[in-house]
Design goal:
The chain contains three helices and two strands. The chain is of the alpha+beta class. InterPro entries: SpoVT-AbrB_sf.
């Protein structure tokens, strides 16, 4: 486990050390998601990583085998075959 200390600056700004940005696989303009637990501890994850994992803020609403997703995939396949 790696530990980092980050200070809160004026207007709530945070300056993340390079090693921390690298550990979180952050890119320019990435957003961070802070998950605060009842005990006051926090988990920080980049939004892009959550999206890649399919566990974004609304990941719990994802429906497996969505008919809409299947329809869109069919249309994309048809468009690719035509073009």
């Amino acid at each position: 486990m790696m530990n980092f200390t980050v200070s809160v600056r004026e207007h709530g700004r945070l300056n993340l050390p390079k090693r921390l940005r690298m550990a979180l696989h952050l890119q320019e303009q990435d957003d961070l998601v802070f998950r605060i637990r009842a005990d006051g501890t926090a988990e920080v994850v980049s939004a892009s990583i959550l999206a890649q994992q399919g566990r974004g803020l609304f990941g719990h609403l994802k429906v497996e085998d969505s008919e809409t997703d299947a329809f869109i995939a069919e249309r994309h396949a048809e468009a690719g075959a035509e073009g």
